[in-house]
Amino acid sequence: FDKLRDGLKKSRESFFNKIGQILKFKKFDKETREEIEELLILADVGVEATEYIIEKLEEMKPEDAFSALKEILVDILKGKNELNVPSEKPFVISLVGVNGSGKTTTCGKLASMFRGEGKQVVIGACDTFRAAAIDQLRVWADRSGATFIAHMEGADAAAVAYDAVNHAISKGKDVVLLDTAGRLHNKKHLMDELQKVNRVIQKLMPNAPHEVLLVLDAVTGQNGLQQAKIFKEVVNVTGIVLTKLDGTAKGGIAIAIAKELGIPIKFIGVGEGIDDLKPFDPVAFVEALMA
Ligand code: GDP
């Protein structure tokens, strides 16, 4: 929570505290409305969510507009924020997202989190485009104590996924993390690859993957949101991991994502270390952003 609070310091001071001051001391008239609108947009909340928030505030005509704003934000962020843990084993989670978003790091952090719960974890290196990426993932697997399944650079992603799930089933492992395609040069290609991975693992487990987590870099703001829309079109994303909230990211992006994508944020990344992945808590997030 402290890392999140530190990370959101700038957003808090430059935008949300100002909004708080305006709401506390000014009448909610046209001028106030415009000031708040501008600050929300600057905070990366996005046009759609900003308009929704303003409309809500106008509709509610609240005595205490600052508290009302907090409630509206929590409401937007609230969803199925916990993992959908299946009753069957292994729990198969695939991770998608563009290169640089923090996908590999998140895979390592998730492996470590599950290991901490005493679970046996398998990581499948399905992003086979770069050998360096495979090696980097291997380091995370070693660090977290997960079994690592990889093929050569350029190998078929679906074949790696099949091996990882098959290994987990035959050895009675609890969790499979699949680090999948990170290139976005061509939507058709991305769709083919991700759908093939799903098709192949469904031969072993019809309900897999149980979660598809889209990893997004919070620093990229509205651009990241556009990428997310493309992923949402090609694959059934069940949750978002929002990384790099410890840095220069504007916290408002979480609100834009939740509102515009309608996909719950499940985890946040607050650093480069193995323990720097936290379950997303809407109330704690809004507290860090606003108070
Ligand atoms: P990938 O290409 O999507 O697999 O991205 P990586 O996992 O290699 O991460 C790209 C860079 O972002 C690396 O330098 C990571 O250390 C860094 N990174 C990942 N997650 C976080 C985070 O939550 N906070 C910070 N500050 N850096 C992160």
From TrEMBL:
The EC number on file is 3.6.5.4
Molecular function terms, GO-annotated: GTP binding; GTPase activity; signal recognition particle binding
A biological process (GO) of this protein is:
SRP-dependent cotranslational protein targeting to membrane
Sorted UniProt keywords:
Cell inner membrane, Cell membrane, Cytoplasm, GTP-binding, Hydrolase, Membrane, Nucleotide-binding, Receptor
Q: Name one GO cellular component term.
A: cytoplasm
Enzyme class name: hydrolase
- InterPro entries, A to Z: AAA+_ATPase (IPR003593), P-loop_NTPase (IPR027417), Signal_recog_particl_SRP54_hlx (IPR013822), SR_rcpt_FtsY (IPR004390), SRP/SRP_N (IPR036225), SRP54_GTPase_dom (IPR000897), SRP54_N_sf (IPR042101)
Complex and partners: Part of the signal recognition particle protein translocation system, which is composed of SRP and FtsY.
Name the UniProt record assigns to this protein: Signal recognition particle receptor FtsY
